[in-house]
Amino acid sequence: MNNKFFPANFMFIIMMIMGTIMSLSSSHWLMMWMGLELNLMGILPLMNIKSKNLEIEASMKYFIIQSMSSSLFIMTSIYSYTTSISMFSMFNKSMFSSIMMISLLIKLGGAPFHLWLPSMCKNMSWLMLLLILTWQKLAPLFMLSFINNNYLIMILTALLSSIMGSIQAINQSNLQLIMVYSSISHLGWMLPICHINNFLMFMYLLIYTTIIIPLFMWFSMKSTLFTYSLTQLNYNMNKENIFVMSLILSLAGIPPMLGFLSKLMTLNLLLKMNMILLPMMLFIGTLISLYFYLNLTMIMTIKSFYILKTNNMKINMKSILCFNLLGTFIFTPMMLYAMNIFNKS
């Protein structure tokens, strides 16, 4: 398995994708659990492509955490099913539904169950980190939306994820850890709306994925792991910095970037539900996270004396840059439609 183009890797990729699709399309908790396990079986060999000791350690941590949360989930769901009349009445007992929610939150890495995520992800490659922070969140988030009890746990986890994810990333110099804590902070914005509007939650995850894919690919291409390496790029790389800075500012949610659209959708939806304190606390966490986002931007701005000469930039970079800058305006009609279709009086 040392060769990244080994044919079996394509089978593992298909297993990972089919596991998530099975969890999303099933109507029974047992099939959803089987989808999660198939997804886990597919991604574990992909984490060990290079067979390095640190990757093996990270994959073992991931296997132990995911197996523990899956065991907790299936035992609780079986007990709830056997003590209820049908599958649809199994959530009448709040204690067991709370344990099921906690097991899914452990899978997602939401605070205060997030301590395993940074220690595991700092030993991984950028592309595997991209899968962990995006694709692996899809099935647990939709499964959380089906458990309609104990909304207080979701609110508390969202607040802790937004604030703790921002605070813990402030003094980090490892770019992978910064991106992991940023993902935990963004998870705090996705959790409150997963019970209210699944489409908006999916849009938030899609926008977040759209932003970090080119950012992670750039970090992987330049083999950048620490913040000080951003200042060690040569003259030819400086013209790309305006492209990377637009992605970082979009990740921070500064208008009129594309990342501002997702926060605007969540804010409008929560205010329509007469929630005032929750979006205020989420915005406090976002303001704290602005520190390390702007710190990265300042590092690249000081180095980039070539920043104003964009005539030689490639066409695809210009198009992605325009997409991030004008994303809020492009998707405004879609946002208004999504907010109104599920909130008709």
From TrEMBL:
It is a multi-pass membrane protein. The keyword Transmembrane applies. GO terms for biological process: mitochondrial electron transport, NADH to ubiquinone. InterPro entries: Complex_I_Subunit_2, NADH_UbQ_OxRdtase_chain2, ND/Mrp_TM. It is found in: Mitochondrion inner membrane. Residues 26-289 form the NADH:quinone oxidoreductase/Mrp antiporter transmembrane domain. GO terms for cellular component: mitochondrial inner membrane. Keywords: Electron transport, Membrane, Mitochondrion, Mitochondrion inner membrane, NAD, Respiratory chain, Translocase, Transmembrane, Transmembrane helix, Transport, Ubiquinone. It catalyses: a ubiquinone + NADH + 5 H(+)(in) = a ubiquinol + NAD(+) + 4 H(+)(out). The keyword Kinase does not apply. The chain crosses the membrane at residues 5-24, 30-49, 61-82, 94-117, 199-221, 242-261, 273-294, 315-339. Its EC number is 7.1.1.2. GO terms for molecular function: NADH dehydrogenase (ubiquinone) activity. Core subunit of the mitochondrial membrane respiratory chain NADH dehydrogenase (Complex I) which catalyzes electron transfer from NADH through the respiratory chain, using ubiquinone as an electron acceptor. Essential for the catalytic activity and assembly of complex I. Belongs to the complex I subunit 2 family. This is NADH-ubiquinone oxidoreductase chain 2. It comes from Amphioctopus fangsiao (Ocellated octopus). The gene is ND2.
